[in-house]
Structure formats: structure tokens, C-alpha cells
């Protein structure tokens, strides 16, 4: 198949890597891709979605896979479909589940899907009044997309009120904060679950855990994610079934009733409180770095899963998973997540060790290629992935691989998967 992948992160790299390793004849294109995706396919640079759709049509692209939320919320799927193209991802209307936290919370309430008690408002008085009914910590969220920074966990009522005032005045997030959600703090453990959906049916992938804070022991600022592992032993069949019955099934039914059937990846951020899964948030795309560890655990065809999901035929296939575990450790650049960093040459040791060669690999994100040399180019640079028969073995292997990657200022957590060990 000729396949176009939208995005430039390690998430998109890992999807392309999984497809390239299927051993079939696939031709991959990335828009825009990164300094390493050129080894998997061809990077192109057409930013306008209409022009891109015309290009896809002319080049007989059979399937387009959208990685990040931005193009989805902007309606790239609707544009591609209007050109008669096959594309994996939700429509602009369905992408509101991520694009607007207010839409998401109101949807959850309407269809009785468990979520934290909340108020959605643009009135400062109402927000303050509701805040007084909660006990600290208190969670304050801006409505729109804020690159993962729109959530404040306030440790006191006063801090919560400051956050509310700053959001509603437009000071902290501009228009994205013109409406806020104030909600109760849920105390439990967090999971990332992914359902690949075709509007009617879905396939639930293995549950993963992300590590959002920059530093070991879940300290430091929030990031896009510093590492992940799957499947997590914190989820048993009973919990999977609760997530299916109480969250995924009613969401697919509800979205159909809303006239926006959900196609694409439904990423459910879950807090498990006393054994009960509560929906923290929805995203309408794969998690990053969760995707990087889920892709190598799939033993059936990844490209076929995306194709069937894009053509309402998921019920025709059976998706299979390896019995192994995967651990992914993110290496970020010096100033992440605060500011950009100077490009730094990446030096990779030659892999001689059979175990490392066989059971580890790298998915690349913030890298550029200049005259054949790969540079760390800011943000999250790459993810070292290890596979193993146990989480510990997978993790040891991932860290062995990390030891073979060098660039100035490299930053990583040393405790990925600690909750499972
Ligand atoms: P969100 O963007 O809504 O997923 O929020 C980002 C992070 O904030 C989540 O991954 C959680 O770690 C945390 N968070 C969000 N809402 C809550 C809540 N109601 N209770 C506890 N933690 C929360
Ligand atoms: N890893 C969390 C996210 O992609 O939002």
C-alpha cells in the first residue's frame, strides 16, 4: 500500500516502523516527518490540507494515518474524505472530544460515563462558588488545546481561584481559557487505554502507563511524557471489562447519537480509584510515548488494522498481540520542557550485543539530519524501546540501549515502569 503519515514525532515514527516491518510491499510518506523518518519513507512538505489531499490523490495514496490532534481538530479528515480518500482519524466534529474539554465533560455527563464531579463555566462567581464545595487539591482546566499545559492542580482554594481568574481573563491561555472546568481531584493510579474504532466497533489495545513528570519519582514539571510501558499488570480482566462496558461502549453509542460517529483512536486517560475506572480525559489520537511501546507489541498487521478501521470493517479482523512487555524510555534535550536547545550531534554506539540488537530499537522524534549526521534538535529527541518476557527484562534492555546513545545535554528518567516493579 502507499501510505501517508501525518506528524513528526516518535509516535509517527513508530507507526511507520511497524508498517515497514510487516514485510509487505508498502511505500511510506511522511508529512512533515523528521530527520529519521527519511529512512522509512519519503518526507514531503505540504502544509495546506486541501493541497495535501490533491497531492495524495495524484500520488494514489491508499491510506492516510493522522498522528497528532492538531490536524484532526482542524478537520483534515473531513477534507480528505471530501476528496474520496481513505484516512484514519476522527472527523472535526468527533475530534471535539479532545479539542474542547467542555464538550468532553458535557458529553460524559450526558451519557452517564464516570468522570470527576465538575462545573463548566465562564462565570468567575460560579467557578468560585463550586470551588468552595470541594476540598483541596482542586483541578482547574482550560477549555481548549493548550499543548498539555492547560491543567492546574491547585493545592489550596486560594491557588485554585488565582488559576481560575487568570484563565478566565485570558491571561494564561488566551482564548483557550475563556471557559474553564473546575473539578474534584481524583486520588488513584493513572492508566492510558486505547481503543481503535471504526464508528461502530473497536479493538481495545493493551493498557499502558505513561510518566508525565520530568524527573524520577514523579517530580518536576509536566511534560508530554518521559516514558511508558505496557501491558501493565495493574489492569486485570475485570477492569478491562469495566472500561469496555462503562466507558468505550457508551462513548461509541453516544457519538453516533451526536451525529459524529467516532473513527480513529480513542485515547482514554483513566484514574482508577478504589478499583473503579474514572474518565479523566479523552484524546482522539495515540499517546506519545505510549504508541511507541504498543506498536511493537502488535503481531498482526498494523496497516490492515488502520485500513479496516478507516473503512468500517474492524469486525472482519482479529488483532493479535505479543506475549511480551515493552518499556520505552524518552531521551529529551537539555532544556526540555522549558525552552529549545542547541542542536547536538547524536552518536550511536555500534550494536554488537545480540540481546540489544534483537530486543531493542529506537523511535526518533526531535531530530534533524544534516549532511548525513543526525542531530538532537530539541524537545523529546528519541525513545529507546526494550522488549522482554517480563517488565524488568524489557526495562533493563531499554536502559541498555539508552547507554549507547550520546548527545550533549541528554536527559532521561531512570525509573520508568516503577509502578509495576
Ligand atoms: P488532562 O489533560 O485532563 O489529562 O490532565 C493532565 C493530567 O492532570 C492528567 O494526566 C492527570 O495526571 C492530572 N489530572 C487531570 N484531572 C485530574 C483529576 N480530576 N484528578 C487528579 N488528577 C487529574
Ligand atoms: N503521553 C500522553 C499524551 O500523549 O498525551
Strand order of the largest sheet: 3-2-1-4-5
Helix and strand composition category: alpha+beta
The CATH superfamily of the largest domain bears the name: ATP-grasp fold, B domain
Q: Which geometry do the CA atoms define? A: globular
Bound molecules: adenosine monophosphate, glycine
Roughly how much helix do the residues carry, as a percent range?
25-40%
Supply Rg: 21 Å
What is the architecture of the largest domain at the second tier of CATH?
Answer: 2-Layer Sandwich
Poorly predicted runs: none
Q: What name does the CATH topology of the largest domain carry? A: D-amino Acid Aminotransferase, Chain A, domain 1
Instruction: Describe the largest sheet.
Output: 5 strands, parallel
The total count of helices amounts to 13
In whole angstroms, the N-to-C terminal distance is: 41 Å
User: What's the β-strand tally?
Assistant: 25
Strand content: 25-35%
Mean residue pLDDT: 95
CATH class of the largest domain: Alpha Beta
What's the number of structural domains?
A: 4
